Amino acid sequence: MVWLVWIAWPSFFIALIIGIILFIKSKHFYPVIYVASVWLYIFTAGFLIDAYTLGRFGILTVMIISAIVFMALGYYFSKIISK
Amino acid sequence: MLAKGMKALIVVGIFLIYMVSSLFGLRYFSYSSFLLPLILIGGLIFIFTGNSQEKVYKRKKPAGPVKLQYFFYVIGVIFILAAIAYFAQEFIVDLPNIVKLILLVCATVITFVVAEFMRGAEI
């Protein structure tokens, strides 16, 4: 885990701060869990790239899949919220 | 009376002058001196005090009871995070990479599903 540590810890503290702010603003706990799941996803993607030392094509594939996943989630939430 | 933003800019300016002068090795400014904490502490006091003649447009709400439960929630969450980190360090670190990857994917999915249920229950 050469560079994963440099992504995991800063992103963890950023997610923690965002979670605290969301909790204070919304007075609900579920946004914090959403932030935790996003951070876990970022960590999983970084772990996949770092542990298996993916090449350029592998890293690009992971990033494209991540983009598709998050766009789909955004579309899903837009449908839920509009109802 | 200066606005808080102006005060903050003044403090940042003093801090930058201090850092630049220490880079050029000026005699009276150095990293090892006590000036840096003084600038930071003095700057924070300068920014957040004063302005006693602020215009009040809204009536301030009276302070309610101290919400001590949030302090204990925070301690509980810190303990949860520490327990997960310790569990990962002691039990997960020696597993093969594929097992770790599967566990991470499962944890991500489970966390998202839990968040969905909590949103439905408005927790």
In words, what does this structure look like?
The complex is a heterodimer of chains A (83) and B (123). Chain A is mostly helical. In chain A, 87% of the residues lie in helices and 0% in strands. In chain A, helix 1 (4-26) runs antiparallel to helix 2 (30-51). The longest helix of chain A is centred in the C-terminal third of the chain and has 27 residues, at 56-82. The mean pLDDT of chain A is 87. Chain B is mostly helical. Chain B has 4 helices and no strands. Chain B has helices spanning 4-23, 35-48, 68-92, 97-120. The longest helix of chain B is centred in the middle third of the chain and has 25 residues, at 68-92. The A-B interface holds A 28-31, 33-34, 36-37, 40-41, 43-44, 47-48, 51-52 and B 97, 100-101, 104-105, 107-108, 111-112, 114-116, 118-119, 122-123.
For the structure shown, list the relevant keywords.
heterodimer, A: 83 residues, mainly alpha, B: 123 residues, 4 helices
Cα radius of gyration of chain A in angstroms: 15 Å
Q: Which regions of chain A have little confidence, pLDDT < 50, spanning 5+ residues?
A: none
- For the record, give the distance between the C-alpha atoms at the N and C termini of chain B, rounded to a whole number: 45 Å
Helix content of chain A: over 70%
Count of individual helical segments of chain A: 3
Structural class of chain A: mainly alpha
Mean pLDDT of chain B: 77
Series of H and E elements of chain B: HHHH
Major sheet attributes of chain B: none
The beta-strand count of chain A equals 0
Q: Overall 3D geometry of chain B?
A: flat
Beta-strand content of chain A: under 5%
The number of strands of chain B is: 0
Instruction: Determine the mean pLDDT of chain A.
Output: 87
Quaternary structure? heterodimer
User: Rg of chain B from C-alpha positions?
Assistant: 25 Å
Shape of chain A: flat
- Strand residues, percent of chain B: under 5%
Largest interface: A-B, 16 and 16 residues
**Distance linking N and C termini of chain A:** 44 Å
